[in-house]
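To whoever is on call:

I kicked off a structure prediction for a single chain this morning and the downstream step that reads the tokens threw a length-mismatch warning. I double-checked the sequence; it's 206 residues and nothing unusual in it as far as I can see. Pasting both halves so you can look.
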Amino acid sequence: MRRRLPRSTALAGAGLAVALAGCLYAAAGAAPGGDGSGEAPGPGRAAVSPMSAAVVVDSGARPDAPALTGADLDGKPVGLAEFRGQVVVLNVWGSWCGPCRAEADDLERLSGQTRAQGVRFLGINTRDRDRAAAQSFVRAHGLGFPSLHDPTGELLLRFPPALLNPQTIPSTLVIDRRGRIAVSIGGAVTDEELGPLLARVAQETA
């Protein structure tokens, strides 16, 4: 039985409308070549996604985030359940994705700035079949938060497609302290755009 789509509202005004761009894949199963280069697919396989706004889900209509478990980029076990009771920024990225590189430094900076507020960051690295390319990305941007390795995009299919389009990379979700999806962003985001949205959720009680 299909889950009813949650009521959601686009957050606009007060400088918080988030204009975003990302990599849109022609098919959910599209992936970079298995040569470990980490480069985007060739012509016809990817395009720039249309600009979109952040979607804030009403507190009473937030769906539970799915269970996510797996290995990180170093092969160590990691799961979303470890962060229950904290606000989680879940960022979907790939080393081959230009907009992912553009937002990575901002995400790392915001991760450090919000840690004292009970905020944790968790990545989902997708369509990097070779961990080496993803590990190189992490080192280049000094990312201190873990990322689940999801080379086939299987983890992305567990989310409501209205809140996480598996074809749009990068994407970011904010998950509240009760483990529910509170904010959805399709495309690259800056710390100035994500910060106010994150603060709003972090101020909520569990």
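Update from on-call: the warning came from a stale cache, not from the record. Cleared it. Sanity check on the structure: Confidence is low (pLDDT under 50) at residues 1-51.
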